[in-house]
Specification:
The protein is 70% helix and 0% strand. The protein has one domain. It contains 7 helices and no strands. By secondary structure, it is mainly α. The longest helix is centred in the C-terminal third of the chain and has 31 residues. The two termini are 38 Å apart. Helix 3 crosses helix 5.
Length: 150
């Protein structure tokens, strides 16, 4: 079976980081620390980034060795299982220092992946269309008429 394109996962990462960036624009650590709502939004965005990164193909990760992919994937586990130990200063620094390079890399890869996909011949619009086309093709080879029940 062919490997799925990483476009959806890269899009999830880029979109989550963009939302995090909008939420954190101009926010100081002193303002972030007591803001439970903002912390939840940021933590959820980082969980999405973490989970999506786990589904990126190894060849994508290999092109960007300066990204700590294991840590990107691992932060999701920390947020899910040790959420009470996550300090606001760590999250604030992660947003400020670690997400921008990850976003840049994912944007580059997303653009390259879209270019690669644009060069491919168009396929069926959906799995349902593909199955329907296969049935029609098989019926045509068998004489055109499907057996009737009656």
């Amino acid at each position: 079976m062919a490997e799925r394109s990483p476009i959806a996962r890269l899009t999830d990462i880029v979109d989550a980081i963009e939302l995090i960036g909008r939420e954190m624009a101009g926010v100081t650590l002193d303002a972030f620390e007591p803001d439970i709502r903002k912390r939840w939004i940021i933590e959820r965005g980082i969980e999405i980034v973490s989970e999506a990164s786990r589904h990126l193909p190894n060849d994508v990760k290999a092109r960007y060795l300066d990204i700590p992919w294991r840590k990107v994937a691992g932060i999701g586990n920390v947020l899910r299982h040790n959420y009470e130990d996550v300090a606001a200063p760590i999250m604030w620094a992660l947003v400020r220092d670690d997400l921008p390079p990850l976003q840049k890399v994912c944007r580059e890869e997303l653009s390259a992946e879209r270019e690669r996909n644009a060069a491919l011949p168009a396929g069926p619009d959906s799995a349902e269309d593909y199955v329907r086309d296969q049935i029609r093709s098989a019926e045509g080879e068998a004489g055109g008429d499907a057996p009737s029940d009656g």
